[in-house]
Amino acid sequence: MSISNIRGDAHSAGPSLTTGKWLNKLERKRQTGPLFGTAHAHELGMSTRAVHAGTNDDPRTGAVGTPIYQTSTFVLNDDQYDSVEGGYARDRFIYTRYGNPSQWAVQEKLAALEGAESAIVFSSGMAAITATVLAMVDKGAHVVAASDLYGGTYNLFNQEFPTLGMSATLVDSYDLEAIEAAIQPNTQLLYFEVITNPVLKVVDIPRLADMAERHNIRLVVDSTFAPPPVMRPLEHGVDLVIHSASKYLNGHSDLIAGVTAGPRKLIDQIWPRLLNYGGSLDPHACFLLERGLKTLPIRMRAHEASATALAEFLESHPNVERVLYPMLPSHPDHALAKKLMDMGTGNVTFFVKGGDEAALRLLDHLKLPKQATSLGGVESLISLPFNSSQATMTSRQRAEIGIDPGCVRLSVGIEDADDLIADFGQALEHIAPMKEAKYA
Ligand SMILES: *Cc1c(COP(=O)(O)O)cnc(C)c1O
User: Fold this and answer.
1) Closest CA to 221 of 233, 235, 212
2) What stretch of H or E contains 51?
């Protein structure tokens, strides 16, 4: 038996690992190895799952923490050779790009948190998105997606798709009629973000799931802005849920990672893409992510508490025009947010009076939040879409997706609400009194 057989795809004309008999053999039992059983995880609360699910109990040392299996490769025995020959190499340790106990531990924890059968981790959110989308479509496929997607995903559909002989129609995620009208005979996928950035639209996932089912196409969502304590999109009928784990899941602004969770059958189809495209997650990063995940539910409660208090303060401030926070009654999607979200997050978007000039002055006077893109870390991060995430758009294009002048994008960390309110209070004093600024 030669090890080269596990390269499957490279040797055959078509993607044999994607269509091979192994993938649909769902009765096969996965040998989980020396891992904590997660079979009953769905009966446990979120924090219990976050702490215990997937955690590797090392039988040799009794270590309470999952060891970091910092190895590129594994000694092959008969069982491993058989797994290669039998086509179930995903269930064995052979080479770290294919699988590693550190990856398994964090994958099982993530699957338990999402209420999923299986999960797979990647070296970035974009690696997860690319491998997942391309595993779900064939040549010539068409995708219907949101028009205000994350920049990297937008580029996948707009720049990469045409070179691969595929196409995408981007539609306002509020406009369900337009979404349905965009579905063509070759449409294979609906792709949406459950909460959009930066105006924090809450997307009607159950209705999209219903639409996908009626048209017999798949619905994949990016739930980076709504981690599992907030929303579990699989419960609302999506086929696969993706996260940039660089944000809330890890929560400490110190690594880049991604994950896709869903039914084992679909995750098994994504795995060969991970092997081919190569975006596997390093064991040390797995350890950091697993450690971060243990405090995810408790961090989310702190994010929500500080964000709610700060959003209410901002809403009452005379120098603030408007605040967008889905858990406040003033948010246009408040009713849907109450239905789909178990709690709020740390993301607050607001508009200061005096436009972008006033917003720049606000940032200059804030002491606690760091001026940086990204979100979901323990530290508050603040940025202005006009000169960062949406800098390449014209002011009219920005206005079309709700980014009016003075727009501030804030990811509230877990700092004490009183300290954040005091800091924003003093900084907001510096932007008044203002005459209306002129916009370019
Ligand atoms: C950050 C982000 C991504 C990309 O994730 P990386 O880990 O940076 O590759 C994708 N989608 C959303 C919504 C994000 O915020």
Assistant:
1) 233
2) helix 46-52
Q: How far is CA 309 from CA 49, 216, 299, 328, 392, in A?
A: 28, 43, 16, 10, 33
Is residue 226 scored above 70 in pLDDT?
Answer: yes
b/e string for 313-323 if b means 16 or more Cβ within 10 A? bbbebebbbeb
% pLDDT > 70, the chain? 89
Residue ID of nearest Cα to ligand 1 atom 1: 244
Identify the residue whose C-alpha is closest to ligand 1 atom 15: 224
Task: State pTM to two decimals.
Answer: 0.90
Residue 440 has pLDDT above 70, yes or no: no
Query: Cα(270)–Cα(260) distance, rounded to whole angstroms?
Result: 9
Distance between CA atoms of 310 and 127, rounded to whole angstroms? 34
Which residue ranges have their beta carbon within 6 Å of ligand 1? 124-126, 150, 152, 193, 197, 222, 224, 244, 246-247, 256, 258
Residue located nearest, by CA, to atom 9 of ligand 1 = 125
Q: Which of 244, 252, 375 to mutate to test the pocket of ligand 1 (most atoms within 8 A of CB)?
A: 244
At 184 the pLDDT is: 98
Whether 247 is catalytic is yes
- Where do the CATH 3.90.1150.10 domains begin and end in the chain? 299-428
pLDDT category of residue 177 using cuts at 50, 70 and 90: very high
Q: Does 277 qualify as catalytic in the annotation?
A: no
Domain 3-293 has CATH 3.30.70.1280: no
Q: How many angstroms does the Cα of residue 225 sit away from the middle of ligand 1?
A: 9
Cβ 100 vs Cβ 283: under 8 Å: yes
Cβ neighbours of 43 (radius 10 Å) = 8
pLDDT digits (tens, 9 = 90+) for 276-301: 999 999 999 999 999 999 999 999 99
Q: Which residues have a Cβ under 8 Å from the Cβ of 400 and sit 6 or more positions away?
A: none
- Alpha-carbon span 223 to 112, nearest angstrom: 16
Mean pLDDT, to the nearest integer, of 306-327? Answer: 98
Query: What is the SS3 assignment for 260?
Result: strand
Q: Is 172 a catalytic residue?
A: no
Give the CATH H-level superfamily of domain 299-428.
Aspartate Aminotransferase, domain 1 (3.90.1150.10)
Q: Are 345 and 230 in contact (CB under 8 A)?
A: yes
Q: How far is the CA of 223 from the centre of ligand 1 (A)?
A: 10
